[in-house]
Write a structure and sequence with these properties.
Blueprint lengths: L3 H9 L6 E5 L4 E3 H17 L7 E5 L4 H12 L3 E4 L6 H11 L3 E4 L4 H10 L4 E4 L7 H6 L16 E6 L9 E5 H14 L7 E4 L6 H14 L2 E4 L5 H7 L5 E4 L1 H8 L14 E4 L6 H11 L4 E6 L3 E5 L13 E2 L4 E5 L13 E6 L11 H7 L6 E9 L5 E6 L4 E3 L2 E3 L1 H9 L4 E11 L3 E10 L7 H8 L11 E4 L13 H7 L7
Parallel strand pairs: 1-10, 3-4, 3-5, 5-6, 9-10, 9-11, 11-12, 12-13, 23-24
Antiparallel strand pairs: 1-2, 7-8, 13-14, 14-15, 16-17, 17-18, 18-19, 20-21, 22-23
């Protein structure tokens, strides 16, 4: 009997006394604990009536027990459904109604608000799990048997459903199979040279592909150790670098660390790899990090529906502004949006990917699945990009972020790169706003460095000889910070909504 994903984790486990997760308050979870504690949780789920294919919805704060619950769901044959801790009760109402989970596990502090919502959605059991090994679910786990025969699950059986962020329209549940997750983790272990000697600083959230599947699955398959932080804490991260070998983060991690005077080559000498993803890394951040630490950040490209698609090389040039090459076994092509024909190198079009990492479709949305998964297996990512002469993939923005002004296409990343290179600019975001003459007006939202004396005219003057006139911003707006989601992605939809009347008022 085989439980496809968990069996691979189990077979890769080193000495069962080795520590898998170490928390900042001193808790240590060994690989033996991973097996016995996930067995206890799987037994409780089974006693609650969870059957193969049932969904387990989880909205809890980050803790090792949440990781163990993910593994328990896999072992019980259930489908793990992590939910962003920032989701409101109204949003949880949608997810529970859509996914129809058998069990919903939430933070003890939110049970009063969420229990009626779960009852309305006809969830059979609503339990709690806190960060201090508390809650009604963990109360039951404490007395459960530490042995469990994992349910038989094959490569194509579902392991998880992750809902997309839903910045436009309804959130979609991406269905990920056992082999989607296993194949990607196996590839990354090899491509990024992970071994049982690795120690990972883990400060990412675990309701998202990056922190849950990439970080956790890679470490389980390599037999390494995780130093488990509840959230981004630059002081803690710097303190841990003399014990760790690698860190996975979003660009915010690196910009915040660069703000600390303690960061230098000496403090990072024990580290071998810094990985960034989930949002574009500024070329300036890349350069400054290398100058301060001697390390080149490895940027990669992934998404909810596909896990990881491309990566800059472990050995070789890690080029700022690119996301590297397609991972082994993953195909990437650039297509014309209207004809769907594959475009040659250096031409901009839609990024499409195919491989064992690509999801099975959207939960209960066959029409949407058919729209975004081609008959030949390629997934239409919604990202615009190109592949250069050396084979590096460049991402130039989301399709919905493309600005069409006077009939011309303006790719935000191209203009943003030029603005970001201007002295005194921290970062920028290009958006298109309704314009009576041009359809959309190219608009730049800029964050200045502290003390920088920059104005609208200076920015335009600096750009005039750098980009075509139709790409020039018609207005420059200055903000203290760009709005971002929890993974560090700039929320251009919020900027478009805030300034929608700029040219029409």
């Amino acid at each position: 009997m085989s439980c496809h994903l968990y069996d691979q984790f189990r077979q890769a486990m080193p000495d069962l006394d080795k520590v898998f997760i170490e928390t900042m308050d001193g808790r240590k979870i060994t690989y033996g604990d991973v097996d016995s504690c996930s067995a206890q949780m799987a037994n409780v789920l089974t006693e609650l009536g969870v059957a193969i294919g049932d969904r387990i919805a989880v909205q809890v704060e980050k803790s090792p027990d949440a990781i163990l619950l993910y593994l328990a769901c896999i072992r019980a044959g259930a489908i793990f459904l992590p939910l962003n801790t920032a989701y409101t009760p109204a949003e949880i109402d949608y997810f529970l109604s859509d996914a129809e989970p058998r069990v919903f596990i939430c933070d003890p502090a939110h049970i009063d608000k969420l229990s009626p919502i779960a009852k309305k959605a006809k969830v059979s059991h609503t339990l709690t799990m806190g960060t201090k090994r508390d809650g009604t679910f963990l109360d039951q786990v404490k007395t459960a048997l530490p042995e469990f025969q994992s349910k038989e699950r094959g490569p194509d059986d579902l392991a998880a459903i992750l809902y997309t962020s839903g910045t436009t329209g309804r959130s979609k549940g991406a269905m990920l199979s056992h082999e989607n997750l296993a194949s990607n983790a196996r590839t990354l272990v090899t491509y990024w040279h992970f071994t049982s000697n690795d120690v990972l600083i883990h400060a990412l959230p675990i309701y998202h592909t990056h922190g849950l599947f990439v970080a956790t699955n890679v470490m389980l398959l390599s037999g390494g150790t995780i130093l488990f932080l509840p959230k981004l804490d630059t002081t803690q991260i710097l303190r841990l670098m003399n014990r760790a070998t690698c860190m996975m983060g979003v660009p915010t991690f690196y910009t915040r660390l660069l703000e600390t005077p303690e960061l230098n080559k000496d403090i990072t000498r024990h580290m071998r790899l810094f990985i960034s993803g989930s949002a574009p890394l500024l070329a300036e951040t890349h350069r400054e990090w290398r100058a301060r630490t001697g390390h080149a950040i490895l940027e990669r490209y992934g998404m909810t529906e596909t896990n990881m698609n491309t990566s800059n090389p472990y050995e070789g040039d890690r080029i700022a502004g690119t996301v590297g090459f397609p991972l082994p076994g993953v195909e990437v092509r650039i297509t014309d949006q209207e004809s769907a024909k594959t475009l040659p190198q250096n031409e901009i079009g839609m990024i499409e990917v195919r491989g064992p990492n690509v999801f099975k479709g959207y939960w209960r949305m066959p029409e949407k699945t058919a729209e975004e998964l081609r008959a030949d297996g390629f997934f239409i990512t919604g990202d615009l990009g190109k592949i250069d002469d050396k084979g590096y993939v460049h991402i130039l923005g989301r399709n919905k972020d493309l600005v069409i002004t006077g009939g011309f296409n303006v790719y935000p990343a191209e203009v943003e790169a030029e603005i970001d290179a201007i002295e005194g600019v921290v970062e920028s975001a290009i958006i298109g706003l309704p314009h009576k003459d041009f359809g959309e007006g190219v608009t730049a939202v800029i964050v200045k460095k502290k003390g920088a004396d920059l104005n609208e005219k200076q920015i335009i003057t600096a750009l005039e000889n750098r980009i075509a006139k139709f790409k020039l911003p018609k207005r420059i707006l200055f903000l203290d910070d760009l709005p971002r989601n929890t993974m560090g992605k700039v929320q251009k939809n919020l900027l478009r909504e805030t300034y929608k009347d700029l040219y029409t008022a």
